[in-house]
Amino acid sequence: MKAAIIGYGEMGHEIEKILLSRGHEVALIIDINNASDLNAENLAGVDVAIEFTTPSTAYDNIRTCLECGTAVVSGTTGWTSRLEELQGLCNQKGGAMFYASNYSLGVNLMFRLNRELARLMNNFSGYKLTMSETHHTEKKDSPSGTAVTLAEDAIARLDSKTGWVNEPTEDPSLIGIESFRIGMNPGEHSVTYTSEDDVLEIRHSIKNRRTLALGAVVAAEFLCGKKGVFTMDDMF
Questions:
Q1: Distance CA 1, CA 124 (A)
Q2: Which pLDDT tens digit goes with each residue over 210-235?
Q3: E-assigned strands of the chain?
Q4: Which of 64, 76, 125, 157 has the fewest C-beta atoms under 10 angstroms from its C-beta?
């Protein structure tokens, strides 16, 4: 597989190591200093681009890949109000796109636990739902994309008629997400249900960025040769 890396920070370097260790070729590296090199000429022959940049640049990066006919895997968060627009472009162009707010296997298992727990909690009243997330100080978006996904999934499965202390809302920011930016923390997320009598919590902590980079590379391998819009649910 010939891959392009878009965004060459710590994640980009980790992705490069994993690509090479799995026998792939890194055909193109794009960073802030050579952003103009992301074009049709340089993407020719690239099987898939892996994009981890910033909320302000992700949309244009992904759009360029799709316009050039290059499959793209993106893990940038904080810009997804326009995600459906790019998914529509992908289908219109007959391209391939894979997006996830988090590529960790453990986090995606947590997504499933979170959805099931929210469904089960519909049988019990008197609980308040809160969420907490902690990341490194360089992370641009707050709350994190992972925390927003957890909130949206919970909202979709909670029934406001069951007597919740904080009634479910269509706005995930109102569910009570605490965001912290501390040191070089790669990521911690918790979902907590609290009543007057007890506390029920699910939590996930990432030890390092390698798990995220590996998930992104596996997603790129999955995407190769396919057409359409894909998520971690499809890969699982």
A1: 50
A2: 989 999 999 999 999 999 999 998 98
A3: 2-6, 25-30, 48-51, 71-74, 96-99, 128-135, 177-181, 188-194, 199-205, 228-230
A4: 125
CA distance 76 to 68: 20
Catalytic annotation, residues: 135, 139
Q: What's the whole-model pTM score?
A: 0.76
Residues 160 and 189 placed together within one structural domain of the fold: yes
Torsion of CA 39, 44, 50, 53, to 10 degrees: -10
Report the number of distinct structural domains present in the chain. Answer: 2
Query: Is 90:83 a contact under the CB 8 Å cutoff?
Result: no
How buried is 184 (Cβ within 10 angstroms: 0-12 exposed, 13-18 middle, 19+ buried)?
A: exposed
Q: Are residues 92 and 134 in the same domain?
A: no
Question: Do 130 and 183 have their domain in common?
Answer: yes
Q: Are residues 163 and 221 in the same domain?
A: no
93 and 39 housed in the same domain:
yes
Q: What is the CATH number of the domain that holds 145?
A: 3.30.360.10
Instruction: Kindly give the pairing relationship between strand 228-230 and strand 199-205.
Output: unpaired
Amino acid occupying residue 77: T
**Residue 72 lies in domain:** 2-103+210-235
